[in-house]
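Title: Prediction job returns without error message
Component: structure pipeline
Severity: low
Priority: P3
Assignee: unassigned

Description:
Job completed but the reporter wants confirmation the result is attached to the right record. Sequence as submitted:
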Amino acid sequence: MIFFAHGDWERAIEYHLFGPLIFFSLTIAIFSCAWELQHQDRLPNRYRRWFNYLPVQISLVASFLGYYLLRLSHILPTTHL
């Protein structure tokens, strides 16, 4: 995520395929929490709906697990820091 934050997108993806996705997700979560705290109210349902959509959750977990299994089995190369 550090490489992504510094604008080095190629190295960010090289070190972790889901790094940019995690960076964007955390950024959205931070802004959502700040909005809720500032307005003392929850986000409208249209914004929160996709967080609870089961097919999206299952596909994200399956993607993460598949990626890590491929890296652990040395099918996908890992980059050493």
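Comment from assignee: result matches the submitted record. The chain is about 70% helix and 0% strand.
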